Amino acid sequence: MTRAPCIPDSLPLDNLDWKRLAAYTNKAMLALARYDGTLDGMVNAAVLLSPVTSQEAVLSSRIEGTQVSLTEVLKHEAGEKYSEAKGGEIREVLNYRRALLMAEQALQERPELDREKGHAHQRGALRSPFPAGDGRRAR
Is the pTM for the entire model greater than 0.85? Predict the structure, then answer.
């Protein structure tokens, strides 16, 4: 079954009800402000963000072909042993997460290095036994 590509409406959209949308926008901005305030009040905000970062690493690594769940990654970090193949996939996810944290640190230290985001994964992958993006094929 072939699917036709989505062709979006041209922008700007003319039929938006801005008054109705403003209520949702304001609600979202207030929620973000509360979340930001929560993070500011925490001694270590990374603790709250860690599961989100780990889930991002799992999902992004799936694009490269890894077949590992967040639960497996967390159990591995808690000391559970897995087969060599599964352990390699878990290491791929941990490598991706490390790259995200390295990129965040680089941007905090030097915000003008926005291009650093793309290179962080490559640097982290250099420590991996597999070439960047090639972990699944190598196993």
Answer: no
